[in-house]
Every structure is written in C-alpha cells, then in structure tokens.
C-alpha cells in the first residue's frame, strides 16, 4: 500500500507541543526584554503582563477562596496562575504538554519555596483516578488540543461530585478573530475562507479552535451546571478608535469564561 501524502506529518498534538516547546505563552522577548530567563525579574515581568492584559483571570479563578482544596491545572504554562493557587494554600497538581512549561513552573514555584506535583503529558488522557480533585483550572489551553472534548470529559471524570471547573476558551465570533480573518482571508482575496480555518492556521499554535457560547454549553452538557460568559479583551480592542472601546459589549470579546459544576 502506498503511503498517503500526509503519512509523515506529525499528529496535531505533536505539532502543538513543538510550537509551545519554544517557550510558554507570554514569555517571548517582546514581553520579557533582556531580563535573565527564569530570574525573579523575568517571572515578575511575565506575571505583570498577564494580569494587565487579562485582569478577568482573578475574578474567574477566585484564587483565595479555595484554600485547602485539591487543584489540578491543565496547561501550567509559565506557572503564573499555578503560583497563585499554591500561595492560596491549595494542594497543587499540574500538567502540560511541554517540558518547557513544566520546568518553567518548577522554577517559578522554587523562587518562593513552593512545590506542586507536575507532569508532562497529553491531557486527553489524564493519569488520575475518578473523583480525585475539588477543582480543575485551565485558562486558554484546551482549545489548542486536537480533541478538546476528550479533555473536558477527562476533567469531569477526575472531579469529585460537586467539584468545579473554572477556565477559558476562545470565542469564534469576536473582534480579535474577525481582525485575523480580514488579514489572512479578505485582504488575501479569499473571502470565503472560514473563521475556523484562519484560526487553525494563523492563531498561535497549529489547530487552534474557538467556539460559540452554545457550543461551549454543549461541550459541558454532562456537568450538572455550566455558566458561560463572554469577555472583552485588549486583543479585541487593539487598533480600534478610542471612542469605540467604551461602547463595545462583552459579546464581541474573544474569551468565553466557563464555570461548570459536576
């Protein structure tokens, strides 16, 4: 049998891993400048940038309200949120698709004498028993996976009864995605190119996905309750006239904040 043209193309999660092994989200040189990698200055710059651009993280996570709970973070990245969970007194566990994120998060925690059980793995199959965690957190990560729905099913499996998922997925019908569509479709003479196709090929790592509010409710339908809320971001408002920024509703934003209870 003759191999097909894509026989040697890595699977999507392998491609995603290769992309993020270059450095966790928010650690590029445009953000950290000439700070020594993994130094206190470097980490504080990453943290300041993250919470300046995405201040809604604190409201979505409610870090300090979960003291003593057993937490799993899916996609620890540079360890910024993981540090907040550890500081809040959670029993922390974290997974990520990349070695870069695991090592970066270990270094972040070590600066403050904190620890976590960290593993590099594909979250589409989690190595934890059913009913293991009080809380699962994942901010802007799961939509990069090849099969996000498998990760959501695994989250529900490992949560205890009454346990919570808190996190964020990208929203497809948003200003940020529309601007990418103009750049990569309309201005290139391809107006019939879909938002989903533009996202998969031009938005961060390969295969990035985004959803509608109803698609999110459907993905979390096995949970006892789910709340989905759109959120406006600086990425949506970038390059827009100043007079518009105060008038645009959250429904135009590119984040969907999720709170689901098993």
Structure at a glance:
The protein is of the alpha/beta class and 262 residues long. The chain has helices at residues 12-20, 29-32, 40-53, 56-61, 80-87, 99-110, 148-158, 175-184, 195-202, 213-219, 234-237, 242-245, and strands spanning 70-74, 91-96, 117-120, 133-139, 159-170, 225-231, 255-261.
Structure description:
- With 262 residues, this protein is α/β, with parallel strands linked by helices.
- It has one domain (12-172, 208-234, 242-261): Vaccinia Virus protein VP39 (Rossmann fold, 3-Layer(aba) Sandwich), CATH 3.40.50.150.
- Helices cover 37% and strands 18% of the residues.
- It is built from twelve helices and seven strands.
- It has a seven-stranded mixed β-sheet with strand order 3-2-1-4-5-7-6, with helices on both faces.
- Strand 4 (133-139), helix 7 and strand 5 form a beta-alpha-beta unit.
- Helix 8 (175-184) crosses helix 9.
- Residues 1-5 have low confidence and may be disordered.
Structural class: alpha/beta
CATH homologous superfamily designation: Vaccinia Virus protein VP39
Give average pLDDT, whole number.
95
Q: How many helical elements?
A: 12
* CATH domain class name: Alpha Beta
Which band does the percent of strand residues land in? 15-25%
State the domain count. Answer: 1
Counted beta strands: 7
Question: How would the global form be characterised?
Answer: globular
Q: Strand count, sense and closure of the main sheet?
A: 7 strands, mixed
What is the succession of H and E elements? HHHHEHEHEEHEHHHEHHE
CATH topology, anyone? Rossmann fold
Which percent range fits the helix content? Answer: 25-40%
The CATH architecture is 3-Layer(aba) Sandwich
């Amino acid at each position: 049998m003759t191999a097909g043209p894509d026989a040697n193309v890595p699977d999507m999660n392998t491609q995603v891993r290769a992309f993020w092994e270059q450095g966790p989200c928010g650690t590029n040189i445009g953000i950290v400048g000439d700070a020594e990698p993994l130094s206190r200055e470097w980490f504080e710059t990453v943290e300041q940038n993250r919470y300046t651009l995405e201040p809604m993280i604190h409201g979505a996570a409610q870090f300090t309200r979960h003291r003593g709970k057993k937490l799993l973070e899916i996609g620890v990245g540079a360890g910024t949120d993981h540090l907040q969970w550890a500081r809040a007194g959670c029993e922390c566990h974290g997974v990520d698709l990349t070695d870069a994120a695991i090592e970066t998060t270990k270094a972040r925690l070590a600066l403050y004498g904190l620890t976590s059980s960290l593993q590099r793995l594909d979250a589409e199959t989690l190595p934890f028993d059913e009913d293991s965690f009080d809380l699962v957190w994942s901010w802007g990560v799961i939509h990069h996976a090849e099969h996000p729905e498998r990760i959501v099913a695994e989250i529900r499996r490992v949560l205890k009864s009454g346990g919570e998922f808190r996190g964020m997925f990208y929203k497809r019908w948003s200003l940020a995605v529309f601007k990418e569509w103009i750049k990569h479709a309309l201005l290139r003479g391809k107006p019939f190119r879909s938002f989903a196709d533009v996202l998969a090929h031009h938005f961060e790592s390969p295969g990035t996905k985004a959803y509608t509010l109803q698609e999110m409710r459907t993905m979390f339908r096995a949970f006892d309750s789910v709340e989905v809320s759109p959120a406006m971001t600086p990425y949506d408002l970038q390059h827009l006239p100043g007079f518009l920024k105060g008038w645009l509703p959250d429904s135009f934003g590119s984040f969907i904040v999720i709170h689901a209870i098993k």
